[in-house]
Amino acid sequence: MSTGWLVTGARGLLGQDVLAELATRPDAVVTGLGRAELDITDPSAVRAAVTGHRVVVNCAAWTDVDGAERSEAAATAVNGTGVRHLARACADNGALLLHVSTDYVLPGDSREPCPEDAPTGPVNAYGRSKLAGERAVAELLPRTGYVVRTAWLYGTHGRNFVATMLELAARRETLDVVADQHGQPTWSRALARQLAALGRAALAGRAPAGIYHGTADGHTTWYGLARETFHLAGLDPARIRPVGSERFSHQAARPASGVLGHGNWARGGLAPLPLWHDQLTAALAERPFAALAEAARRNAPRPPA
Asked: Known catalytic residue: 126?
């Protein structure tokens, strides 16, 4: 029997990978709607879009962290109120909601990986807007709402840190990269597979509703990620130079640590995502990243003689 899945934010970095993953499932009938096709801040449009679907995967979001600091109301309209519209429509239609959130809902000051039930405490407007969305899911869908927090996401369908490092490698001899922020680099394709698996487990009644941490196992810094990206791409990691966060100015504060624990996956009979290094190795073997790496090797600036 086929199951109707709706993917919102379907033209974004993660949304495109979720669509591709669900397309491999013969029992999934998938509708993908991007921002131009569905404005999740419009409750009537949301209600119409959700009708007839059994699972909704919400990848729609305001993701401009510094922009949220300037326009918190606009960010919250998408990340908070828009999610509330989706949750209400799912509740009215008996649909499951898998909502993608962020580690930024946490204060980021823990020395240990934060468990799913760690106290929240965003340090910026973006985190506050995403926390509003999480609370809407918990309030309206206590038994059929799933919040999947992710972080440091990269992939082949949009701008991201890994792609930027490879692009800059073709133009700059050295790169200064922050070495005092810790996180879990997560490949969007790996997260898409995890979301699909969670949805199937939820449909089967195996995975309880609640918060799950959809980040890679292990952790590193932006500096460590940049060096490993260079290493795997056949570039000299010594071209990456460590600097402190104060080297770059941002309107929004950044958490010092976004390292999350993954204990809740076992409740649904699912394994956590693989190690960040293994994900990065697999991602860089894919054609778009491999092409960027080849261009970086071919055009890498040479140090002066």
From this structure: yes
Q: E-assigned strands of 66-204? A: 96-102, 145-150, 153-154, 175-178, 182-183, 186-187
Average pLDDT, the chain: 96
Per-domain residue ranges of the chain: 3-158+186-218+258-274
Q: Determine which helix (DSSP H) or strand (DSSP E) holds 56, and give its type and residue range.
A: strand 55-58
Question: Which amino acid makes up residue 11?
Answer: R
* 99 beta partners: 58, 147
Match 């949304």 to its residue by tokens.
15
The pair of structure tokens assigned to 169 is 């490698």
Calpha distance 159→166 (Å, rounded): 11
Residues present in the chain in total: 305
Query: Is the model's pLDDT at 52 over the cut of 60?
Result: yes
The answer to whether 66 and 250 are in contact (CB under 8 A) is yes
End-to-end Cα, the chain, rounded Å: 67
Annotated catalytic residue, options 126, 154, 212, 223: 126
Sign of the CA dihedral with 95 first, then 98, 104, and 108 last = positive
**What integer pLDDT is reported at residue 249 of this predicted model?**
81
Tell the residue number behind the tokens 């506050």, with chain if given: 128
pLDDT for 304 beyond 90:
no
Which residues pair with residue 8 across a beta bridge? 33, 58
pTM confidence score: 0.97
pLDDT tens digits for range 110-153: 989 999 999 999 999 999 999 999 999 999 999 999 999 999 99
The per-residue pLDDT for 300 is 84
Domain 3-158+186-218+258-274 CATH superfamily: NAD(P)-binding Rossmann-like Domain (3.40.50.720)
**In this structure, which amino acid lies at residue 77?**
A
